[in-house]
Amino acid sequence: VPKKLVTTVSGCADDALAGLVACNSGLRLLQGHRVVLRHDLQAIRGRVALLSGGGSGHEPAHAGYVGKGMLTGVVAGAMFASPSVGSILAAIRAVAQAGAAGILLIVMNYTGDRLNFGMALERARAEGADVRMVVVGDDCAFTTPGKAGRRGICGTILIHKVAGALAEAGASLDEIEKKVTVTAKVMGTLGLSLSPCSIPGSKLSFQLAEDEMELGLGIHGEAGVRRMKVLPADKAVETMLKHMTDPSNASHLSLTPGSSVVLVVNNLGGLSCLELGIVAGAAVRCLENRGLRIARAMVGSFMTAMEMAGVSLTLMLVDEELVRLIDAKTMAVAWPNILAGPATTRREEVPAPKEAPRKPQDETGIGPSTARVERVLQRVCSTLLDIRDKLNELDRGAGDGDCGHTHAQAAQAIQEWMRSRPPPAAPAQLLSALADVLLEQMGGSSGVLYGLFLTAAARSLRDRNGSPAWADAMDAGIEAMQRYGGAAPGDRTMLDSLFAAAQALHSLRNPGADPLQVLAAAVQRAEAAAEATRHMEAGAGRASYIRSSRLEQPDPGAVAVAAVLGAVLE
Questions:
Q1: Which of 34, 236, 297, 518 could form a disulfide with 343 if both were Cys (CB 3.0 to 4.6 A apart)?
Q2: Which CATH number fits the domain that encloses residue 189?
Q3: For position 541, what pLDDT does the model report?
Q4: What are the residues whose beta carbons fall under 8 Å from the beta carbon of 349, sequence distance 6 or more?
Q5: 55 is in an annotated binding site
Q6: Which residues does the entry assign to the active site, renumbered to this chain (predicted)?
């Protein structure tokens, strides 16, 4: 039996309704019944009341559609079971006593629902209530007409909306009944699923092989019309629309190019939102290619079948009046709050922002000559390429074994960049340019960390020169890495080597300090710090998810940083 997050199997339908009402101040339960009503029943005095309902397990249907502008109330059955005559009658009496000017029952075409709502209607009429019933059958699955007729599925929510907007505007029971009867004939729905479903405490409704999908199944796990191999989303959507509109299918919907439709892309309960978005895009594209205008599109979970990993597509042919009724405001919690407008895959894109023109390189900035810069960078690149395998080996114990590869990629990118143009000699521009190269080419979190370090260091060096400026730049770079990377010295990361070197570079601030001696001390400190990471417990980065007892090697990032500093000094 599949797992379910319920409190008790027997109470799950009641608990779900109680949860909905608890979280929504516009809803009330009818005492002693599984009935949800609008909190402001007095507002329906002199207006038509709308009641619907059906089995539980299809949430948010139907209780999610109760509210001003949609349903007055709903009657819920047990899991996948029709509501009782007594509860339906109690709901009818509640709205009749509130002064409703007529009551319309919107019923989905299932034998149990027709029988129970029909029986309650007859009894309510005997009590003098003005009650009518419309039965919705929007399923396009079956190609030959069956005696039971088409099943009522997700298209029913559009009927709730159209009827609700008319009732809110003060339309009579005759007008509403006539309009929804006509509207129900110009819509169709078809489901497709990758999985079965189950109600709490029960086994799966049917079996589907790993590589199969089922077309045309119902919202209780009833069999569909066709099993087929799993198709890509776009092909699956094409198959669905073809079946829905095939003239040889007795339950098809006729669509002529130039028509306007409302599209509902409904999650049957267990499809991810990502898949639903892909299906929605494919549906809009497919309909556009057929020359149809998608006046409105709704995407979400509107009528589900527990955890079924599937989707249904509903199409309703619309004119301007129907679109206005769909757009009319409602307080029902499950109705999407979308901006009124057509759906299309041909939306104009926002133009990409233009980058500010780069300032011409300031060659007057005092700094090492281009030739010297090239020599140092070549040494750094050669060093990183030489230690590629060593870094990969160190990284296998704690990461994904690609640290050497990532650094070698960076080295090759820098070499390629130097071949294409001489590097700028001014320090701020040099570091800034290197940051751009690494951010674009290095990949991994290392690329971003080096990019952060170099960008912040470059900003610190702008319009400054002299040895103390380099100490400040090192500190600025480390501060940026810590701010966004979250690591601190002692966390067994590349920061350990950098931090140790930075401490040594602080001596550059002393008047008369020998830069080469200070740099040599910084390299020594960095190498010692890299070696010391062997005995540290990882506090950040991917290695922090691994038990420290398994990390007997130094951190590859720290080793790489020490090697880079060493190459600069040579």
A1: 297
A2: 3.40.50.10440
A3: 62
A4: none
A5: yes
A6: 220 (tele-hemiaminal-histidine intermediate)
DSSP 52: E
Structure tokens at 29: 């339960």
Which of 146, 178, 172 shows the shortest CA–CA distance to 159? 178
Cβ–Cβ < 8 Å for 48, 167: yes
**85 and 221 belong to one structural domain:** yes
> In terms of domains, do 379 and 273 share one?
no
Between strands 187-193 and 27-29, the pairing is unpaired
Residue 379 in domain:
yes
Q: 327, 358, 385 — which closes off a domain?
A: 327
Which whole-number Å values give the CA distances from 338 to 61, 157, 159, 265, 278, in the listed order? 19, 16, 18, 14, 18
The amino acid occupying position 351 is: P
Range of the domain at 30: 12-200+209-327
What's phi and psi for 52, nearest 5 deg? -145, -170
The answer to whether 46 is annotated as binding is no
Residues 479-488 pLDDT 10s = 999 999 988 9
Q: Say which residue the tokens 């130097």 belong to.
A: 418
Sorted by sequence, the CB contacts under 8 Å of residue 195 that are 6+ apart come out as 208, 270, 307, 308, 309, 310
3-class secondary structure, 298? strand
Q: How many CB atoms lie within 10 A of CB 282?
A: 21
Going by C-alpha positions, the residue among 480, 459, 481, 461 that lies closest to residue 470 is 461
The residue count of the chain comes to: 570
Residues 113 and 236 in one domain: yes
| 156 close to 52: Cβ distance less than 8 angstroms | yes
Q: What gap in Å lies between CA 177 and CA 174, rounded to an integer?
A: 5
Helices 388-396 and 403-420 sit at what angle, rounded to 10 degrees?
150
DSSP per residue over 113-181, as a string?
HHHHHHHHHHHHHHTT--EEEEEE--B---SS--TT-PPP-TTHHHHHHHHHHHHHTT--HHHHHHHHH
CB atoms within 10 A of CB 143: 15
- In DSSP terms, 131 is beta-bridged to 103
Last residue of a domain, one of 274, 296, 327: 327
| Residue 252 labeled ligand binder | no
pLDDT in tens, 92-116: 999 999 999 999 999 999 999 999 9
Distance CA 501, CA 561 (A): 10
> Are 220 and 109 a contacting pair, CB within 8 Å?
no
Average pLDDT estimate for 138-142: 94
Do 376 and 248 belong together in one domain? no
Q: Does residue 394 share a domain with residue 322? A: no
Give the active site residues: 220
Name 241's Cβ contacts closer than 8 Å, sequence gap at least 6. Answer: 283, 286, 287, 290, 313
The pLDDT of 229-255, averaged and rounded, is: 96
| Cβ(381)–Cβ(388) below 8 Å | no
In a domain, residue 356? The reply is: no
- Whole-number Å distance between alpha carbons of 564 and 527: 10
pLDDT digits (tens, 9 = 90+) for 166-217: 999 999 999 999 999 999 999 999 999 999 999 999 999 899 999 999 999 9
Residue 448's CATH number: 1.25.40.340
